[in-house]
Design a protein that fits this description.
With about 110 residues, the protein is mainly β. The protein contains no helices and 6 strands. Strands 1-2-3-6-5-4 form a 6-stranded antiparallel beta barrel.
Length: about 110
């Protein structure tokens, strides 16, 4: 068992914290702040190779609390970063703040 806390900032995992947009299945878009991390742990030797760019998760928070958007409707949705990179994203709960996980390559990791 690892002694460092999961998602610890000093664990060497690629991260993204900043603005993003969630595109809901019906085409609506919602501006969010995202805090995302690649779950692949470079210090472990038991990761699957496929985890290197596709096992990511984190949280998103609506910027406009008055927006008529329920983040849980991103089932799945698209998470788009300011640089235009995007990936499928599954919200895991919450109307204004939601946890979530990626369904493809992490948009914040260079391939």
């Amino acid at each position: 068992m690892s002694t460092s806390p999961r998602f610890h900032p000093g664990d060497g995992r690629p991260r993204y914290v900043g603005p993003a947009v969630i595109v809901l299945p019906d085409g609506r878009e919602a501006a969010v702040t995202a805090s995302l991390v690649l779950r692949f742990d470079p210090s472990r030797d038991d990761n699957r190779e496929s985890d290197r760019d596709s096992t990511w998760a984190g949280s998103v928070t609506l910027l406009d609390e008055a927006a008529d958007v329920d983040l849980f409707d991103a089932d799945p949705g698209i998470l788009r970063l300011p640089n235009g990179r995007e990936s499928e994203f599954m919200a895991t709960g919450g109307r204004r703040e939601s946890g979530g996980s990626g369904l493809g390559p992490a948009p914040f990791v260079d391939a």
